[in-house]
Amino acid sequence: MDIVVKGRKTEVPERFRKHVAEKLKLDKVQKLDGKVISLDVEVSKEPNPRQADRSDRVEITLRSRGPVVRAEAAAGDPYAALDLATAKLEARLRKQHDKRFSRRGSGRIPASDVAVSVPDAANLKPNGELATEALSEDQVPTKRVASLDVQGDGPLVVREKTHSAAPMALDQALYEMELVGHDFYLFVDAETKQPSVVYRRHGYDYGVIHLNPDSFGEEGAGGAGGALGG
């Protein structure tokens, strides 16, 4: 993999190209993201003299089998801007790397130790069944959780959240999903304005589901709740 350095409405001297190769160490980048496909560095210059302290801008774009990662910075000269952008890129890659590692479950508790390690955990019989006395249906207490009636203590757990959502592009939604460390991410597609969800399928494969608001309320429209498994 090579680093592509280009200028936008400005010339990029050979000295700066060599400095980029020295600054962006490919072995370090690939250690944080082993699926890197390309690494582009774009340099631009702000002609407004009032912004002399931020006249040079450097944008680094890393494309891999996962989401696109971008980092940009502006400073009084391109070398300082490159240092700032590189630090941002490495911080984002390191954060994604740490989240992927933590999702592997290195801190999982063995099933045999759950009763000891987790307060109020259910006791299990040797055959794996719950060591609790069975209750008749009319003895099981029912409570209201969100918009559902739940009997007993679960195992259903419901939590409702409402977020404001600015429309965003698909690659930004993938980046946000990786950033928060979830296996799915809800967003409003900036191109179609449709409520959408991106989700992880297998390895570095992703899926996306769009909801068509025009079909809301129509008979036979069907729910999308089971579609994530496809």
TrEMBL record:
Task of the protein: Required for dimerization of active 70S ribosomes into 100S ribosomes in stationary phase; 100S ribosomes are translationally inactive and sometimes present during exponential growth.
PANTHER family (alphabetical): 30S RIBOSOMAL PROTEIN (PTHR33231)
Descriptive protein name: Ribosome hibernation promoting factor
Record note on quaternary structure: Interacts with 100S ribosomes.
Family matches, as Gene3D superfamilies: Ribosome hibernation promotion factor-like, Sigma 54 modulation/S30EA ribosomal protein, C-terminal domain
Native organism taxonomy: Bacteria, Bacillati, Actinomycetota, Actinomycetes, Kitasatosporales
Localization in the cell: Cytoplasm
Top-level lineage group: Bacteria
